[in-house]
Amino acid sequence: MISIITVLIFNNINIFITYKYTTRIEMALQVYGIKNCNTVKKALTWLDENKIAYTFHDYKKEPATLQQLEAWENEISWEALVNKKGTTWRKLSPEEQTTVVDADSANQVLLKNNSMIKRPLIESSKGIILGFDEEEYQAKLK
Fold first, then answer.
1. Which 8-state DSSP code applies to residue 131?
2. Do 46 and 54 meet the contact criterion of CB atoms below 8 Å apart?
3. What are phi and psi of 29, to 5 degrees?
4. What does DSSP assign to residue 106?
């Protein structure tokens, strides 16, 4: 809340007028993914076309940390973070896949294989958005 006080002097009488208003500060979007991923490309194109500012974090250059994974898991499930449809998941042995049973085990696999994190992952003031869904982007980002 911001307050502005204006003092008016009228016939030697001080008149105080206070204006109060709230400002809405938007959090800049943080977009995580891999630059050459087709779904990430679609998302970034949509953000650019809709003139929505963002900062892009490429997992190949800036891997996700355990702290980030745990923070994301406070908002969404660990199951949602693990991309079981991608080639990285399919390259894991069946034994490795069966060890992913909870957040801790998922995080260990995701830290070794950031490309297994569902993408793009967008941090916004309205929460985390996974993947590219134009309707969801319209509702949450515009």
1. S
2. no
3. -65, 140
4. H
The two tokens of residue 96 are 């490795």
Angle at the Cα of 102 (from 115 to 83), degrees rounded to 5? 25
User: Residue 85's closest CA among 130, 31, 30?
Assistant: 130
Q: Name the catalytic one among 37, 100, 129, 130.
A: 37
Q: What confidence tens digit (pLDDT) does each residue in 31-61 have?
A: 999 999 999 999 999 999 999 999 999 999 9
Reported pTM: 0.79
Short-list 56, 57, 55, 64, CA closest to 83: 64
Do residues 10 and 105 touch, judged by C-beta distance below 8 A? no
CA distance 42 to 23: 32
Q: HSE, CB side, 13 Å, CA atoms: give it for residue 80.
A: 14
- Whether 37 is catalytic: yes
Helices 38-49 and 134-141, axial angle in degrees (round to 10): 40
